[in-house]
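WARN no homologs supplied; continuing
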Amino acid sequence: MAPDSVDEGRDHGLAGFLAPAAGSLALSLLLAPLGGHPYDMEVWLKTGRLMAEGRDIYSPPDHIGYPPSWAYICLAAYYVYTALGEQAWRVAVKLPLLVLVPLTAYEVYKLTGRYECYIITLCSGPLYLVSSVWGQINVVSAYFAVRFLRKLERNSLRGVLDLSASLSFKPIYVILLPYLAASYGPRRFAAALPLLASIPAAVTAATIAAGRASLETFLDTMYYQPMRLELTGYGLMNIWSFLALFPQYRPNPLASQVWIPVIAALGIYLGRRGCPPPRAALALLAAYMALYPWVSEATLLDACVLAAPLIARGIDARPLALLVAAGTLFNVLNGGLKMLGGLSRVASEVYLRYGGLIWMLRGIMGLVCTVFSLCLLAEAIHPAPREAYRRSS
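OK structure emitted
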């Protein structure tokens, strides 16, 4: 718990945590069978089948784009598919995500000691859109990232294992490494690197040894496939989709990687400045969302989780609210309605009929998302009035 926080959870008792968690699970279980991102659901099912057959999960043209930890969840869910059919499988493959929503909220509470952070996190719409409806796995990485931040605030090296677990599912929080290096210093960071690599390396090595992946296809997925996506020219939820509106725009390999030196410089600056871990994490995520060419709308979940501790500490929540609104609209314009099974056919017809207009609005909303991401970045690194007062005292 942060030293300046107050443990308000005791006033609410066990029921104060279990009742909202039960409501969260009930809502998630209601939403889970109703939809799913068509591409991701197909990949999760295909990955489970390949795992069951002992084949390379990275070999098909469309395959899982992360380290293989999630593939084992897909394998377990695939056995449900073979036994009970597609609807039961849809719930089974999302079930770890549904459970992790309240668990992540509880980790946010433990990070801050503020009960309202627990409620704020549980009431964040993107957690349910991304986990329960979409079926994307950001909540897994976010859960372990919050655990890491909590232990980092206590200056504990054990938290590095939580960051390692986060990276083994979805490596988005690699953006924290420059900050960690600057905070720890060269010697301590060097000592942390084996711990940081331990879980992704162990899971990947075990998967390759079992014949369910090869080193060549794994490296292609982790390093070369992202570059190919970034150079498609379509862009996703930021300024890159706006640039794609202009006929003269051509993707540039160097320009598409500008986010890397920016994240590195920002992380080192925040680490040397002694910026608290929750603030630094949100600032780095906001910079990533503003600049990474292939940033997914699922990253809105991460923004809500990382912002919740700071909202309780006094930052202005409006940039986050505007970013979530703009990102949700971008998702709708980017084919998001296809995630709702009952609307999928109608949505496809609408996207085909009004494709030109939707493409233009999508690009404009990408620019809007970048503006609000930068506003969130500024808010994250600027001390809130209460925090500034405590420092001056």
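Residues 9-392 form one domain.
OK
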